[in-house]
Amino acid sequence: xxxxxxxxxxxxxxxxxxxxxxxxxxxxxxxxxxxxxxxxxxxxxxxxxxxxxxxxxxxxxxxxxxxxxxxxxxxxxxxxxxxxxxxxxxxxxxxxxxxxxxxxxxxxxxxxxxxxxxxxxxxxxxxxxxxxxxxxxxxxxxxxxxxxxxxxxxxxxxxxxxxxxxxxxxxxxxxxxxxxxxxxxxxxxxxxxxxxxxxxxxxxxxxxxxxxxxxxxxxxxxxxxxxxxxxxxxxxxxxxxxxxxxxxxxxxxxxxxxxxxxxxxxxxxxxxxxxxxxxxxxxxxxxxxxxxxxxxxxxxxxxxxxxxxxxxxxxxxxxxxxxxxxxxxxxxxxxxxxxxxxxxxxxxxxxxxxxxxxxxxxxxxxxxxxxxxxxxxxxxxxxxxxxxxxxxxxxxxxxxxxxxxxxxxxxxxxxxxxxxxxxxxxxxxxxxxx
Length: 434
Description:
- With 434 residues, this protein is of the alpha/beta class.
- The chain is 36% helix and 13% strand.
- It has three domains: 2-155, no CATH class; 167-179 and 217-432, Glycoside hydrolase/deacetylase (TIM Barrel, Alpha-Beta Barrel); 185-214, no CATH class.
């Protein structure tokens, strides 16, 4: 397919590669030569600011031909079949600029603009155009691309498109490997003192039974996870927090023999990634230390990551990961809402807007986290699956990848997480049912 463009910017190259090569599987060529375009007899269309004759045409907005970051009018958007911002030309074969809209979403353009962030310095779902226009829970980019595919199929029946296949990946963050075990004398003594002050006899007895070996640690849910994964045959990835102890980083010590044994055991079955500590966002040298710790334990190169507390600040976070040879990051999702932060369920390369260049870091968006439902949406476990099913349905419909985010402690069926283990298995059953 030949596509006329008025300029070959890095943004243009990036988004056409994403849509045509990676998603549609179509060979294409971009040209600025008017004569070559007019004389070409194969499938073609004009993506520019004006139509030449009667050729197929998609009206372009300015975004892909700009550099730098500025406020956008967003007239290039369309939500499903209901235009939010119409294309400036009614002759266009689509009523919106799919290329600019896709770039805006996957580059996370809006996260570079001035915005009030939350207490953890995170870009919140409620600040996003997707939430404000009621399409956060739709993989809008994937829907747009399918619309383009359908239109091109009508115009050029000879084109052969790649078929997208739905996938499910369960990801588990291990922020705190054990509730009572392996905490050390100081932390254990402090925990007993706190329970005594609160007159919490149950927790005193439970902690004592775990430490004496007569009761399994509540957060030790790894055998359960392994059984579920072997029962239903799905892909899983584990992310381990190995930062130094701190207020927001409370895992057991990275030198703890039991934790090391756990990581080694799980790495025999599943990919293991680093869970960069909260403190590593301020102490940037710590991230290298934590990655090296995990690499020494697993005797493998560490190429996957997900930020603790989902702390993601663009482009800084991703640049640091790239510098340390992380190839795949799984942080792209919101803490306070289910849905599609980048408008897609499928992975894509990070585009560094400040440098105006595509990078080799693959971004893998997740669509749901159990803590979102419990803490932010105040959903009971008996209601939870009904919030998750529409997300999975939307991904199945577009042939995307459903990535879920859970924690080892939330599968304990213990304390505040009573009943959530059943939610996990229900989710797995629904997710693998194609």
